[in-house]
Amino acid sequence: MGRFDGKTVLVTGGARGQGRSHTLAFAREGADIVITDIAQQVASVRYKMSSASDLGETAAQVEALDQRCLAIQADARDTEATTAAVEQAIGQFGKIDILIANHGLLSLSPVVDMSDEVWDDVIGSDLTGVFKSVRAVLPHMIAQQSGRIVATSSMAGRTGLPTVAHYCAAKWGVIGFVKSVAREVAAQGITVNCICPTNVDTDMIHNDAFYALFAPDVVNPTREDVTPGFTSLNAIQVPWIEPIDISNAMLFLASDEARYITGEALHVSAGWNAFNTA
């Protein structure tokens, strides 16, 4: 028996990385799964984003666990696509019990050089896309008088960082959004929380642009070259944590054990939160 037997979980950004980890974690606990993902490249993002084949691979891994999976290519920034994905999920599984609003993207630019496109893509995905995903599931959760919503914020939502002002703004916004929605729907049996990870071992940080930021004096820096810089952010001396560390927190916040936790921003950050952050 799994903790989420009979539950339906919708994971946005589920094609790979943290999203795939969250998807498989819930599937192992007995949930039926719906995954959405943009599954294509955004022009302003310099690292390789997920693909349709990644989305299909995640679905195949869920099905290998003998759990049902619906995989939908949908951009969280797109109201029509997001609403249609929720309707399709309810049509196939009859309900959505849990929303994991995990999707996100990142680019690097000082504000003085930041284009409208770069700003809009990050804010549109990482903040507005969370709003649209939550808005799409709320009528159903309110009707059933129950639900769990967990969004991915970041330690960048607790401090300011150079070259990622748009990302920081979005992740700060997610925290304020979550706290506000939590108050709006508490009486309907719905909890709304978010998680603030430190750097996580995924493609979002393991790319040339991010490596150059952490090792600016090194030509073509490697993973080993940037490890000290990443480690300096955390009180626990690790450069990054694993996706499963965030998945475990997602499982907890979506579980009955966390039934009275709402409006929370949970730090899973190797102690980054112990430094001078808001």
Q: Overview of this structure, please?
A:
- Helix content is 42%, strand content 14%.
- It has helices spanning 17-28, 52-64, 79-93, 116-144, 165-185, 208-214, 223-231, 243-254, and strands spanning 8-12, 32-37, 69-73, 98-101, 147-152, 190-197, 265-268.
- Helix 1 (17-28) crosses helix 8 (243-254), helix 3 runs parallel beside helix 4 (116-144) and helix 4 packs parallel to helix 5.
- The longest helix has 29 residues, at 116-144.
- The mean pLDDT is 97.
Please count the beta strands (DSSP E, at least 2 residues each): 7
Could you say which structural class the secondary elements and strand pairing correspond to?
alpha/beta
- Reading the helices and strands in chain order gives EHEHEHEHEHEHHHE
> What is the gyration radius calculated from CA atoms?
18 Å
The biggest beta sheet reads: 7 strands, parallel
Task: State the separation between the terminal residues, measured CA to CA.
Answer: 40 Å
Spans of at least 5 consecutive residues with low confidence: none
